Amino acid sequence: CLATLIVMLVGDTYTLINYVSFINYLCYGVTIIGLIVLRWKKPRIFRPIKVNLLIPITYLAFWAYLLVFSLYSEPVVCGVGLIIILTGVPVFFLGVYWRNKPKCVNRLIESLTCWGQKLCFVVYPQCGSAEEE
């Protein structure tokens, strides 16, 4: 969010749309790759919708072409898009991967979550931990 706000203040909307488009294409392709890997590694898992593997493989062929063309035609935009994605890595390690956080860090994360929920009207905020109630 911070990187997007900076781009909105400094750059134009067309550039921001290009960043987001590249990020979306990248995420869609990685999702389809995950679908194929799961079909290969765990073929017996329940799937409510099952499609022929030719469809995702065809999609990946077009996806790879568009991604390579984007990297070739606008490498700076793609690089900034990758940097925007990579800003989430520290957040993942601090919020999800790090299991034995001190209580002060857990309280900070909880208060930031509550504040974000109130700001964006996303979910009715449940401030305070369940242990306190």
TrEMBL record:
The chain crosses the membrane at residues 16-39, 51-73, 79-98. The keyword Transmembrane helix applies. This is AAA1 protein. GO terms for biological process: D-alanine transmembrane transport; D-serine transmembrane transport. InterPro entries: AminoAcid_Transporter. The keyword Membrane applies. GO terms for molecular function: L-amino acid transmembrane transporter activity; neutral L-amino acid transmembrane transporter activity. PANTHER family: AMINO ACID TRANSPORTER (PTHR11785), ASC-TYPE AMINO ACID TRANSPORTER 1 (PTHR11785:SF73). Keywords: Membrane, Transmembrane, Transmembrane helix. Coiled coil: none annotated.
